[in-house]
Each structure stands twice: as structure tokens, then as C-alpha cells.
Amino acid sequence: MTALRNTWDKLRRNRTAVLSGGMLLAMVCIAIVGPVVSSNDYLQTDFDNLLRPPTLQDMQFFGTDDLGRDLFVRTLLGIQVTMLVAIVASAVSLVIGVVYGAVAGLVGGRVDAVMMRFVDTLYALPFIFFVILLMVAFERNFLLIFVAIGAINWLDMARIVRGQTLSLREREFVAAARLTGVSLPRIVFRHIAPNLIGVVVVYLTLTIPQAILVESFLSFLGLGIQEPQTSLGALVDAGVNQMEGASWMLLIPAFLLALILLCFNFFGDAMRDVFDAREAS
Amino acid sequence: MILLTVDKLTIRYGDMTVVDGLSFQVSQGESVGLVGESGSGKSQTALAILGLLPAAAEVSGSVMIGDTNVLGAEESVLNKLRARRVAMIFQDPMQALNPYLRIGAQLRLILISHGLATGRDADAQVIDMLRRVGLPDPERQFDAYPHQLSGGMRQRAMIASALLAGPELLIADEPTTALDVTVQAQILELLAELREDTALLLITHDLGVVAGRCERMLVLKNGRLLEAGQTGDVFAHPEHEHTAAMIAAAPRLDRGEVLEPRGGSEVLGIQQLAVTYKERSGTNVQAVRGVDLSVAAGETVAVVGESGSGKSSLVRAALGLVPAQSGRVAFCGARIDAALKRRAQTVRRDLQLVFQDPVASLNPQMRVAEAVAEPLLVHEPGSTKSSRRDAVGSMLAKVGLDSSYLDRFPHELSGGQAQRVAIARALILEPKVLVCDEAVAALDGSVRERILELLRDVQQQSGLAIVFITHDLAVVRAVSHRVLVMYLGRLVEFAASEQLFSGARHPYTHALLDAVPVPDPRAPGGKAAISGEATSAVSPPPGCAFHPRCPHAAAICTNELPEQRSIDGVTVACHRVEEISRY
Fold first, then answer.
1. Which of A225, B40, B58, B321 can bridge B12 by disulfide, Cβ–Cβ 3.0-4.6 Å?
2. What is the pLDDT at residue B182?
3. Counting beta carbons within 10 angstroms of the beta carbon of residue A120, is it exposed (0 to 12), middle (13 to 18) or buried (19 or more)?
């Protein structure tokens, strides 16, 4: 447990990590608590107050949209959905990618070649085509988006982990461990995995924003989250249509989206420093 | 005439001072050695002289070349100085030459950019210079890319590029450190021959190189100048105790006691071991072509050879780290499986390895305590955590590290400390055989001496058998009882140390011994007895693989493989051994 405590201590001392991590945490908390506290509902239309600019009245801090729905609650709901998609999709790609890449890299030889050619084949599929196929074949639903995003993201992760494992496997400290008779599981978990964490964490923080962007992109195209559910991407899409009369509909979700992406990127940078033993402690 | 005046040069990075108030001069035509261990600031000084320091360096003092102060000079002024007046030879020519430009094209550029020659005239001058540095067939090498040349040939091309514009001062930063010892001798000889009235500032950690090649020497430590004087005087009467210690610590081929052979029961036996690597392109490289070796308890056997001789492959195959193609490996008389994963844990416990690069051989994410304790965890699973920690503590004490090192990560250790940790990890199970693969090659002289002493102590206490792989014959003389000399995957000579150092039988062993520089200006050494370099192991020459470089080669050597013969207890593989024995 000392290793975990150490990591935590280092994380606490890293100002970027605390700032960006704290911001993300705050946003998640507000996104969860906000809709409960607010007197408004994300479905409730109010035709007397269409396109109302942001105001302090009736807790409509972000105004209303073209159907008179409260944008504050909708935006918070959008953050929830966006974060959920990002985290679930990244977790999926993390698990599949790391296991797949590590196995290919460790076993090597023919197994590695076959596994990597499979990855290449999947790479060759055009992503949008793949998503449209999924949408046509199945009912549109939430789960499908996770599947679609996870299915592309793990490919990069697998490639990176495999490459790293291949080079780690040949390193002298692994040879020294093998020579002493250290068991394969221990070599994997004590010698190879800790040296992978840095790369995986950095790549993961690139995957999360990427997943968020892909989700927004799909929603923007109308292929993602369906009304009346919403996400930041869907809100930006709606905002674009009202850009001239009601600029807040575009600016608020777009700003929040950018803020989340930035926070994840900074947090990832800081995490890499924390996980690398070579960084001065 | 004074060419270079360095006055109170100080270089800082943040609050770290790497060069501290250094002053010296170099006059026309003289050769000056700048000597120091790693971190002494010698390379930083060279970069400062050429105005090549990174922007992060804070520099004060002055570096005058003629009447120009290099520090703070405009890039255009510096470019006129470089190559024309001061030229540099780097340690690794593969890094210093542009891999995408042909040799001729890069060298021609020097003449053209300095307006010294153009067109055909430039080409002719380049080819002439390539001929002078001893590149065979210079017209063809003119069109070669750097990777197509061998290490020694690349360094020759580098020297050609440095001399091309006729500089007054040549700075050579460890010019031969990356080269084999016979090639080192050739390159140093070439430098001495070609430079004529060009002054030479030779930067090196190797006292032997300075002793043979420099008129004056400067000794640096932690960025400060400790001592300066005529090379002969400094070696004879070093003023500073650090200099005296450096000279005393430098292993010497020409003096010191040779260890008596010891008889003991065989612990490691290798018979007709062969190792073949399959390259991506499908060609097979036969790194080891059938070598025998036996190591007895309590003795040190050195395996010597230049790069590509197969010395590392031989022991790695014996340890099971690389697959052996054929041959037998026996441990304490019993044959053991070639594949590591099929070897019994008890065998693994008794065969341990120390690598050349200590930092690479330690897991960067593992603290010292855990790294050293890991073998115990594997082989004594019943041991408690506190008993392991005690064992680690006492093992570290044995290698000269106190308990404050337990919780450090490898990157927090110096090279010498990391190597002690690696040795502690290898010795904690009290193995019967320890293989040291160039284990002291990357270490400074004084640190190397302490590590060798440590190994000798352990051997005397526990009867450890040591296989010592190295290219450095001076070290071999200091540590080994018997010596195996390899060339392109084959045994050429296997003899007791006293026999080898008093009268080597194989011409290749002679050449190796002659080429080792001796850290004493009065002693001969560092002679280039043979020319050329070892051909690649992919397609060794027919017959005796050494014949293209052998001064005694006869017709039989070119087409018939010499058999191993035993003469007075020495195993040697040479057709003409009776005729050519010198001693």
C-alpha cells in the first residue's frame, strides 16, 4: 500500500494535477447535484419563455432553448452523458487494448503477427461507415455509442502497449529476472506493467478527450444521443442552429466542452509525471 | 604561437557548476591531453571552445582563438572559425555524420561552404583526403553512406572531414572509446601521423591514450583543473593525490602480478556450443561456432575478443538467455537443459549474471531494496519480509552501500552505485557462478578498481567461479586465472594468464596485447600491430577467419580451418603457431 500512498502524495503535491483534477471533480459534482436541486426539469417545455437569455430568475442560469426547456439542467445533463460516454468508452479501450497489446507483445512470434494483422484489418474499416452500419442494423441506443467508440479506441491502445511490451521484454532487467527464475506472472505484474503505466496513462488521457470529441461529432451529425436525451455535442449542434439570435445556446456548451477537454489533457500530463519514478520526488 | 587561450572558463546549469574557473593554453603544433573521469567537465569544455554549448548554459570567462572571443560571438563569426581554424572529432562518428548524405557529399560541403574549392576540384581534394586517412578504395567510399562503413572506417572519414579545411587546432573528444582496441591503436596512430603541425586537444578518460600520444596533459576533476604539466612529469611525479590515485588505479598490461591458476572441481562446462541468430532479412549469423569452456570453482576465466567475436553470445547461451543451436552445457558435472524455462530453479539460483549497463539492468520502477530482495522472494518463499530486509541490508553493506540506499530508485544512483546494486542482486543467493558481461567497462577507473576488488573478496570467501567477459586486456590481467580469446565466433587461444601474458601464441592475441595502450609514457604500448577490422560474422573469410589481418598468413591459412591444438597446456588454433612463436 505504500506505493499507492506515495502516488497519492505525489499527486497532491502536483499543482497542475490538483487544479485540473479538482475542476473536473467539481464539474461532475455540479452536474450530478444541479438537476436535483434545480426547480426545473430537462423535459419541461415552456412556450412563454422561448429562447430566454441567461438570467437569475427561476434558476434559469443558462437561459432556455427554442422549445423553452431550461438549458442549465440540460447542460448539466449533457455533461453527465459526455463524461459517462468518455469514461466508459476509455475504460473499454483500456481493458481490451492493454490486455490484447500485452499478450501480443509478450507471446510474440506468430501469435503476435496474427493478432496485429487483425488490428490492421479493423483499422482499415472507415469509422463513420461502421457507425452507420451499427445504427442501421440495431436500434439506436445509448449502449451502441459506447460500443462504437470503444471499438475504435482500443486499436491504438493495443498497438502502443504491444510496442512498449516488445521493447520492455528485451530489456536487461527482465533478462535478469528471467535468469533468477522469477515467475512469468511476477515478471508481467512487477517488471513490465509498472513500466507500462506511464505510457498507458498518457495515452488514456488522449483517449478520453478523443472519445468526448467522437461522441460530440456523432451527436452533432444526429447519429449519437437522441432527443430528449442530450450531450454536450448535441447541445452544440442545437446551438449552431440558433447561433444568430441566441448565441448563449452555442457558447455555453462549447465553452464547457473545451474546458473539460483541457482539464483532461492537463490532468494526463500531470499523471504521467506522478507515475514516472524517475521524476524527482 | 598560442592558438587557444581559455581563461577562467565557468559553465553553470542552474545551480550546478560543471566547469569551474578553468584556464589553459594550447600552442601551435603541440598535443595536449585533457583527462578526467565522467562528470569532470571535459566534454563541456570542448563544446565551449567551439561555441556549441546549449542555450541553457551560463558561461563566464573567455575562450580566445587567435584574437576572437568565442563566448558570445556571432554565429557567422563562429562558422568562419569552425573547420577552418578549429575542428572537432566526436566520440561516435555514426552520430556526427549525416546518415542521409554520402560521405563525399558531406565532406565536399565543408570545402564549398568555406570557399576553399568548388566542383571537380573539391571532389579531388576530398578523395585525396580520404586516401590520406587510409580509407581503402577512396573513389568508391566517396559515394558510400555512413552506415555502409565499419566503425573504424567511419571514424577515419570523420578525421578526414576534420582535417579537410586545414585547421590549426583539432579537438578530439574520446575519439576511440567506441572502437575495438586494435582499431583504436590504428586511429591514434593515424591522428599522430596526419596532424603534422596541427595542434591536438585530446579529451579522454583513458590515461593510456594520453601517455602514448600527448606532450602535455591537464587533469580535470569536478570542473576544476587539478594539475597540468609535461605528460612524463605528471606520470612520474603527480602533484595532486587524485592524479596519483588515477594513475595507480589504471590497470596495466606490463606489470603487476598475474594470478596463479587454481585447480578446482568444474562448476560450469561448455562443449561445442554454437549460437546462430536469424536476422530479419533471413540471413543466418553464426555468432558462436563451436566453443569449449570449463570454469572451476574459485577461479576467474576471462573471455576476450573484439566486438562481433561472439563472447557475449557464448555465455548468454550457456546461461540460457539466448537459444543455443547445438552443444552441451553442464553444471557441476550434470548436463543442464539449454532452454532457460526448462531449467530447475536450483540451477538458476547458482548461475547469475551482471550486465554492462547497470542502469538498464535495474527496473526503473523498483527500489533498491525490492530489486535486491527479489531473488530471495523467488528462491526462499518461506522467508519473512524482515529477514529478507536484513539479508538485503547486509548484502548491500558487503558491496559498500549503507542502508540509506535501500529506498532509492535506480535513477537516483550513480553508475558505480547502480552496478554495486546489480552485483548485490546477483550475489544475494550465493551463486556458484557469476558471469560479468563487460560489467566494469562503463565505469570510471577508481570505481572499476573498487568493484574488481569486491569481486575478488567475494571469490576468496566463497569460492565463487567468475566468467569475466571484456574487451579490455589490462583488466583481464588484473583479475583472471585463465583467458579464452575469441575471434569471429571461434576459439583462437585458451591459456592460463601467466602463459598468455608472458608469451601469447596466436598472432591475434599478440595484436591485442600490443594494441593496449599503457598508462606510462616510458613504456611502449598502443601499437597498431595489425591493420583492418574484423569482418562481419555473417560471412567470415574461409579458412582461418583471422587470415586477412594476420601478418603471418600463408597459403594454408586461406583455405583450411586450423584445428585446436594443445601445446604446453595452451589450446590454440593456428596453422603456423610453431613457426611464429615470438617469445
1. B58
2. 84
3. exposed
Tell me chain A's radius of gyration from C-alpha atoms: 22
Which of A179, A186, A194 lies closest to B352 in CB terms? A179
Residue in B536, B546, B517, B528 with CA at minimum distance from that of residue B134: B528
The pLDDT, as a whole number, for residue A232 is 86
Residue-averaged pLDDT of chain A: 83
Which residues of chain A fall short of a pLDDT of 70? Answer: 1-5, 140, 276-281
Query: b/e string for A51-90 if b means 16 or more Cβ within 10 A?
Result: bbeeeeeeebbbbbbeebbbbbbbbbbbbbbbbebbebbb
CB contact under 8 A, A278 and B362: no
Find the chain A residues whose C-beta atoms sit closer than 8 A to any C-beta of B: 171-173, 175-183, 186, 190-191, 194-195, 277-278
Residue type, B257: E
Judging contacts by C-beta atoms under 8 Å, the chain A residues touching residue B353 are 175-176, 179
**pLDDT for the residue numbered B314:** 93
Lookup result for grid cell 569552425: B82
What's the 3-state SS for B531-554? CCCCCCCCCCCCCCCCHHHCCCCC
Q: Do B361 and A194 touch (CB under 8 A)?
A: no
Say yes or no to pLDDT of B434 above 70: yes
Contact between chains at A181 and B363 (C-beta distance less than 8 A)? no
Buried b (16+ CB within 10 A) or exposed e, B492-510: bbbbbbebbbeebbbbbbb
Inter-residue contact B527 to B551 (CB < 8 Å): no
For B523, list phi and psi in degrees, rounded to 5: -95, 145
List all residues 6 or more positions away from B376 whose beta carbon is below 8 Å from its beta carbon. Answer: B383, B388, B391, B392, B428, B429
Task: Give the pTM.
Answer: 0.80
Exposed/middle/buried for residue B77 (C-beta within 10 Å: 0-12, 13-18, 19+): middle
> CA B568 from chain center: how many Å?
32
What's residue A1's pLDDT?
A: 43
Cell of B28: 601551435
Contact B355 A179 (CB under 8 A): no
- Residue B288's nearest CA partner among B302, B271, B301 is B271
Specify whether the CB–CB gap between B78 and B66 falls below 8 A: no
For chain A, how far is it from start to end, CA to CA, in angstroms? Answer: 18
Could you count the other beta carbons within 10 Å of the beta carbon of residue B115? 8
A278 contacts B364? CB cut-off 8 A: yes
Distance between CA B431 and CA B411 in Å, rounded? 27
Task: Tell me whether 0.85 is exceeded by the ipTM.
Answer: no
The whole-angstrom separation of Cα B35 and Cα B45 is 12
Q: Which of B306, B272, B217, B295 is nearest to B30 (CA)?
A: B217
3-state secondary structure of B186: helix
Which 8-state DSSP code applies to residue A171?
S
Q: What is the pLDDT of residues B79-98, one digit of tens each?
A: 888 888 999 998 888 888 99
Whether the Cβ atoms of residue B487 and residue B546 lie closer than 8 Å to each other = yes
- Name the least confident of A92-101, B155-164, B339-348, B525-534: B525-534
* A125-141 as b/e: b if 16+ CB within 10 A: eeeeeebeebbeeeeee
Q: B-chain residues within 8 Å CB-CB of A195?
A: 363-365
- Check if the beta carbon of residue B160 is closer than 8 Å to that of residue B141: no
